[in-house]
Each structure stands twice: as C-alpha cells, then as structure tokens.
C-alpha cells in the first residue's frame, strides 16, 4: 500500500494539475483525482496518471503523466523528468510551428521552454538528484516562473514579482505618497492590515539588492503633486528641500 496520497501537498498538486490542463487543453478535476486516489489507496500522481489515460489521447500528454508517475514512484529522477518536459516543448516548436511564421503563441512557448530549462537546473542544484516529485514541485512553486534574462538587459518587475529574487543593483521607483504607500491603504488608516502590507512590500523591495539600492520618486503623478513617501523618512533618509 502506498501512503504518499496522505502526504502530498494538495495545493501544490492542484497547481500541477492546473498547469497540465492549461498546457494540453484538458479538464481534469483535482477533487476527483484526490477522491479516486484515496479510494484506490494510491498516491495522487498515480491516480492522476490513471485518470489522464482514460480521458486523454495526446501522446505528449501521456508521456508526461507517465514520467511524473515514475518520478513519484522513485524509478525516475527529476532531471530526466525535466528532460521529458523540454522534449515535448521541442517537438511543439519544431513539428507544429507554421513555416515562415513567427506567431505570438510560439514566441510565448519558446519563453516557457527557456524558463523551464532554467528552473529545472536551479531546482536540481537546490535539492539534488535524485529527489522525490513532491520536493521537486514544492521547490518549483517557490521560484519565479519568468524566462531567464539575457545579457545586457534590465529586468523590470513589480515588487510581488521580485519576491524570492536578489540582484546586484536595484532601482525602486514610485516612493511617493498614494503610490507606495498606496492611496487605498492610506484610506484604511496607518494601523490597518492594508497599510502594514504596504510597509512589508517596501521592505521586500529594498532587500532585493546585494550591492546598491537607488530610491526614486516624482513630484507629480498623472498631473497630481505627490509628497515623498513616508517610508523614506522611516528609513532615516534626508530628503532634498523642495521649497
């Protein structure tokens, strides 16, 4: 009897099934997979593989379900699993791409392949090889899914998108009242959970840097005058006299 069904993080599993459904245009139900897996006394990934085989006829989809089931059973390491995913991307890019066309859909697919290739390498270095599928997915869930940034480029992202990343040089813009902290958070009051979330977001942003941090604000936003963010004063910074 396998007990993995009781140990798997169902939130991570649901994200895994959701990504699979989007990738192949399927409608597999996480709740149904969980219920059937418990009834059959098998782990979730084996249950998912079985259900996929009854509802899906795509060879690429079935190749991935088989690889995931083997990885979860310990007969395949995550590096080979990642290779299976990349091979599927490669087939789509070489076999299905219309000749002479550079469509937006295939551009996104190429970015996804590059992102997956980079992520699989990062996860492998973090948790080692071989590793359980559960560990692989949990580590994957914590990392940015953005495609790797090329040389001589400046990544532009939101504070939320920067979580979990670190950079040598960080430029944080928009440190003005009604921007950071935002207008709606200020309306809730300085002691509100919404305002504290703004303060935490500012902390996340400034702690992304490893070498230099540049903070900026504008005197006007969309034609409206804005005072410098109170967070600048809380950091103990001396602001230029604007009078």
Structure description:
This protein is mainly alpha-helical. It has two domains: 138 residues, no CATH class; 76 residues, P-loop containing nucleotide triphosphate hydrolases (Rossmann fold), CATH 3.40.50.300. Helices cover 55% and strands 7% of the residues. The protein contains eleven helices and four strands. A two-stranded parallel sheet has the order 1-2. A two-stranded antiparallel ribbon has the order 3-4. Helix 3 runs antiparallel to helix 4 and helix 4 packs antiparallel against helix 5. It is elongated and about 70 Å long.
Summarize the structure.
By secondary structure, the protein is mainly alpha-helical.
Secondary-structure map:
Blueprint lengths: L9 H15 L5 H11 L3 H12 L3 H15 L4 H19 L7 H24 L5 H9 L17 H4 L4 E6 L10 H6 L4 H14 L2 E7 L4 E2 L2 E2 L4 H5 L9
Parallel strand pairs: 1-2
Antiparallel strand pairs: 3-4
Helix pairs in contact: 2-3, 3-4, 4-5, 5-6, 6-7
């Amino acid at each position: 009897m396998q007990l993995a069904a009781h140990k798997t993080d169902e939130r991570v599993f649901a994200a895994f099934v959701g990504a699979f459904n989007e990738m192949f245009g399927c409608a597999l139900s996480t709740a149904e997979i969980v219920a059937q897996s418990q009834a059959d006394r098998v782990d979730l990934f084996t249950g998912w593989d079985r259900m996929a085989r009854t509802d899906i006829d795509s060879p690429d989809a079935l190749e991935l379900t088989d690889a995931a089931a083997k990885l979860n059973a310990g007969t395949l390491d995550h590096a080979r699993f990642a290779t299976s995913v990349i091979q599927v991307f490669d087939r789509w890019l070489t076999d299905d791409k219309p000749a002479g066309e550079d469509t937006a859909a295939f551009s996104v697919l190429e970015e996804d392949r590059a992102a997956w290739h980079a992520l699989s390498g990062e996860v492998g270095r973090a948790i080692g090889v071989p590793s359980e599928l559960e560990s692989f997915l949990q580590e994957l869930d914590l990392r940015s899914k953005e495609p790797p940034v090329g040389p001589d480029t400046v990544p532009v992202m939101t504070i939320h998108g920067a979580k979990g990343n670190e950079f040598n040089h960080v430029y944080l813009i928009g440190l003005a009242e009604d921007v950071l902290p935002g207008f709606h958070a200020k309306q809730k009051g300085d002691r509100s959970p919404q305002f504290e979330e703004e303060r935490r977001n500012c902390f996340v942003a400034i702690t992304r840097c490893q070498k230099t941090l540049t903070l900026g604000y504008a005197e006007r936003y969309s034609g409206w005058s804005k005072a410098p963010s109170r967070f600048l004063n809380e950091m103990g910074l001396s602001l230029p006299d604007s009078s």
